[in-house]
Amino acid sequence: MIVYFGVDELAKVAILFYASFFAGVIVMYEGISQISPIYVRVARTLGATDGEIFAKVIVPLAVPHMLTALRQSPSVSPGRHWLPRAHRRPAGSGRPDPERAVLSSSSISFTSASSALAFVALFMDLALRALARRFVSWQERIA
Amino acid sequence: MTAAVPRIAFDNVSVRFSTPSGGHMQVVDNVTYNIHHREFVSVIGPSGCGKTTMLNMVAGFMQPSAGSVTLDGKPISGPGPDRGVIFQEYGVFPWLTVKDNIAFGLNLRANRTTGAERDQICERYLRLMGLAEFAEAWPRMLSGGCASD
To answer: Which of A72, A108, A122, B142 could disulfide-link B147, Cβ–Cβ 3.0 to 4.6 Å?
Structure first.
């Protein structure tokens, strides 16, 4: 990653993408692979083409897994990106770090950074839960 | 006088499945049987004797290992709207309302209808099944009997 993207913002974004994308893909892959073939059979019996089966059967059944992947990805990425910065390397080691200066000057501590992250994560989770209520209300849930 | 062409014909049909141990299991063995127009046929037998396998071949979900299954003289190559199937498991789509489940087939390219016609057909079948008041309900809200209707 460092060889290809260097040590600046692009590398951070690439690492975040790498960390969150594949975690999401695994969740979605596992979810989609467990879709009951009965729905595909029913659709085929009614005359659905491959494209219609994908659009009208696979995609709706994949939505709950997409939302799960979305809920999981933000929890992976901001934490990996920002938390280590709140207590990063000591001053004087390596090249000057402008973000460290910002963090120090504004007295952002590890605790406050963690709290901010927790609130952001909570807000995102609530937003995704609201989306889930809207789009997967058809699902039977225990709680 | 020529004999009537059967609608569905099993001609020396055999089906073998591979077993996890590497062997083979003969599920249908050399079946020849014709079903003619307006005939009502029940396939009866003990569990595992190949009833569902035979129906799956007519539905087009699977191909025989040997022999052929034809519909109106043409080999069945896959599922299609010309054959209705009632599945053993619940085949209702859980993400669609009861009405949208009925309309699902009517929205497909193979048998697309106009909106007004679709509504008319849906209402007719909802009334016929006694599910008119559940038109906008999710399938999970229905009883087992209603869901299989």
So the answer is: B142
